[in-house]
Amino acid sequence: MAQIIDMPKLSDTMTVGTLIKWLKKEGDPVKTGDILAEVETDKATMEVENFFDGTLLKIFTPAGAQVPIGAPLCAIGDPGETVAPPPSPAETPLTTHTPLTVATPAPSTVTTPTPSTAPTPAPISAPTTAPANPKPDTTTTAPATTEPPKPKTEAPRIPSERIRISPLARKFAREKGIDYTRLQGSGRGGRIVRADIIAAAATPAPPAPPAPTLPGAATPNSAFRTPHSAFPPGPIQEERAVAVSNMRGAIARRLLEAKTTIPHFYLDVEVDAEPLLTLRRQLNAALEKEGVKLSVNDLILKACAEALRRVPSVNATWEGAQIRHHGAAHISFAVAIEDGLITPVIRDAHAKTVFQISAEAKTLGNRAKEKKLAPAEFTGGTFCVSNLGMMGVVKFNPIINPPNAAILGVGATVVKPVVKNGQIVIGQTMTLTLSCDHRVVDGALGAHYLAALKTLLEAPALLLV
């Protein structure tokens, strides 16, 4: 009897998965442990494993479809075995993103018959009573008019959700600024591969034709534009509607829940960043030959773990009838990826050196950007760090990542005048913002944590002990 492979639950918050591609095709022999397909969940791209020996008899779900948990994906059995009919419409997987099309009404025209096709006059008969509202006579032959040829329009852009493109080619296209939605793939089944992106990058794009203007007519904003304006006219991007991805939908649900159910309050502290930057520079110079390169974020992650050791009550979770205090500091950090963000977790960060944290953060960050994180690598965090300082943001209030009781927002280092020892000197400061769940963390407790964190960052040698 054929065995049915269903859509598994690949993350704790997954409800549907998008089947990216099949790695096996109908008729292929398969064995236990083979990877059948790749599925995008709300967190990452995961692999669907086979648990039976036999032949892939039937694929129920095409690539690109959204499939709810438990819906059938394929059937495994003996060669030539009859496969049960596909599931009923109520159980079939959700179809993938359908491009939105807008019907353009045709211009209203009046068609007049030509002399060769004009209707033959009816024979004369006895007079009859004319209708009360006679219709206007439209059978009068009008002189034929020649319509101007319609300009050729460019082929509509295919929505990116339906384009078959390898992850490497997609990443390369983003780096080179290539619009891969207009390319024809040379890979198997029309799939766009890296060679197609390289060829497109080597071919210069044709300049856009200037828009026709009437003689003497004023152009938009002509009073404010010079002949060499850096702001060309036209739309800023293509008008389009994009279906919500699994990841974006999960982010929307979780953050809406967090912001509406968790009583947030925010605490700010300004840190003297000069000692931290000096220590980082010295360590990187001393260990350059060993390939060690610490970032400011590595030191902040270590400092957050050590501050939780000093103020452990912040390392807690609200569970309704009880507050759970965690015995280990599992520090998660936000990583921006395509169409969202994810928070990899450095487990037992309080027991690791800053160099171990740095190496682990780089590995997890790279796997996150490739959407290759396993569920155990992005769940179970007890405290979160979101750093927008590297993007020039000076201060922001992050939303708590449930079920954590707090999240730290890290701003950019700013060079400005500061007072040291009664003298105004040029200093480097950094603003840290702690978003707290008031059900678990009170104002004084949050202030104690920020004070401990400030002490560690302003005396960073303590992070190396």
Structure report:
The chain is α+β, with helices and mostly antiparallel strands and 465 residues long. It contains 7 helices and 18 strands. It folds into 3 domains: 3-91, RNA polymerase II/Efflux pump adaptor protein, barrel-sandwich hybrid domain (OB fold (Dihydrolipoamide Acetyltransferase, E2P), Beta Barrel); 163-202, Dihydrolipoamide Transferase; 264-464, Chloramphenicol Acetyltransferase (2-Layer Sandwich), CATH 3.30.559.10. A 6-stranded mixed beta sheet has the order 9-18-17-16-12-15. Strands 1-8-6-3 form a 4-stranded antiparallel beta sheet, with no helix packed on it. The model is unreliable at 89-146 and 150-158 (pLDDT under 50).
Keywords, please?
465 residues; alpha+beta; OB fold (Dihydrolipoamide Acetyltransferase, E2P); Dihydrolipoamide Transferase; Chloramphenicol Acetyltransferase; 3 domains; four-stranded antiparallel beta sheet; 18 strands; 20% helix
